Amino acid sequence: MSSGPEINSLRAQILQMAQKSGEGHVPSSLSILDLLWVLYTRVLTIDPSNPNSENRDRFFLSKGHASLGLYSVLSARGFFPQSELENFCEFESILGGHPDRLKVPGVEASTGSLGHGFPQAVGVALALKIKRNPSRVFALIGDGEANEGTIWESALLAAHHNLDNLVCILDFNHSTDRALKLGEISLKFKSFNWEVKEIDGHNHEQITKSLMPQSSSRPLFVLAHTIKGKGFSPMENNPEWHHKAPNKEEIKTFLGELN
User: Fold this and answer.
1) Is this model's pTM higher than 0.85 or not?
2) Is the domain 5-258 a CATH 3.30.565.10 member?
């Protein structure tokens, strides 16, 4: 099953937040939206009313510039009131261009420069293993982010320590192709001794199945084939929209597509 009415509602919300603030990476947020929704509705063991429980699963949005997608899902799941979304990127808002773990309930790590969230996830997964805590750790990285050396250092470390409680999801929306192609990214992770799966990153059943607990003793890499700007045809795979907010006329056109 692919996107349903809940996803379309979140897509509209993301557009409206960006239009009102004049900020945000809309296409990146849209490419990961289905992945986030499935994680927070079907996969993660986490209680919005007690987001810091020691027994929670941990999720790291390593590509933190896609914060609009995360904020819309966290709000829909009850981590904070939806009214907070109206203040995105305002001076006193808890919701900035990148998530801040000290301000936003449910956010595990503050992000900024790419390549840092995944190493933190590896460290947390190792700590949980040492403490014999059965919780799982998920990190969502971008394909452009996979140009960073820290991604590969972390992948080597995770495999060395047999972190079978760790899942790395790659949002493979091809945004980096014009700068540096990743090649056979699945084969690269296999060569680093990871379990590897490839899925349609907008198909909820495939996402769910791929993220269920594994019998392997190795960390899991899920390559999710996605479309940057998914849901709005003028925006899909169009680099012009990488960091651009829709104006009032454009948002009318976009929202019309959802109907």
Assistant:
1) yes
2) no
